[in-house]
Amino acid sequence: MTPRQPCPAMPAPLEEYAVQFDDLFCHRAQRRSFRDYLQGLLLPRDRNKTLTALAGTEPGVGAQAAAVQRLQSFVSESTWEATAVNQRRLELLQADSRTTTHEQGVLVIDDTGDRKSGKQTAHVGRQYLGSIGKIDNGLVVVSTLWADEERYYPLHAEPYTPARRLPKGKADAAFRTKPRIALQLIEAALKAGVLFRAIVADSGYGANPTFVGELLEEGLPYVVSVKPSEGLWAPADAVHTPQAAAAELPWQGAAEPGRWIAVVRSFDDGHTET
To answer: At 180, which CATH number?
Structure first.
């Protein structure tokens, strides 16, 4: 077997990190592009992390630069396995005492959407995009994130495919709702040995009975949002909506909060809110 040729090294300690992925790439060009991509993600840029920005070239006209073309080939055409690279990343996070998951953290479920012109890119369609707060043409990705009071990092991510892109629409075997994708990502987190105190999600997931029902069935603790008018099954003499539950905890003011508990939230800029 021909010995592997070394590729240009990154500044330490980034090289110490990057070398732990080398066995997942078959070619020297892949290992080099992986380092370029990683370095581009970490360097401060005035623009979003487009390929031209990652490579440090001019927007638009810089798209034909050799460095950009190498990254384009690495991202869209090269044969490395993204799943294997992400699995290695999680293994490294779990092996480090500073970043390993623990039972006081939370598993965050969320989805994010970005505008995308045209229809040629896989998974693109007219759908609600949270980043702009309305329906538009774009791509939506469901993701899991682990967080505690000091740190957070992404775990897994899967694109959502609108039903209209599938031959049989919602009846197609390949169709998955966002809550269904979320349940599969939770399963992946559990298989990866991720520890957490609870699963948290917004009302897009909290209002889905299948999602909540499966969490209950698996005995997984969760905290999810529901809309104020969302009804819940409960005994006849119990509360059935969040509004009714809030009314049962009378708030007279900060000096007489009733059964409300003050929670202090700290922000990145140092200020707090109660």
So the answer is: 3.30.420
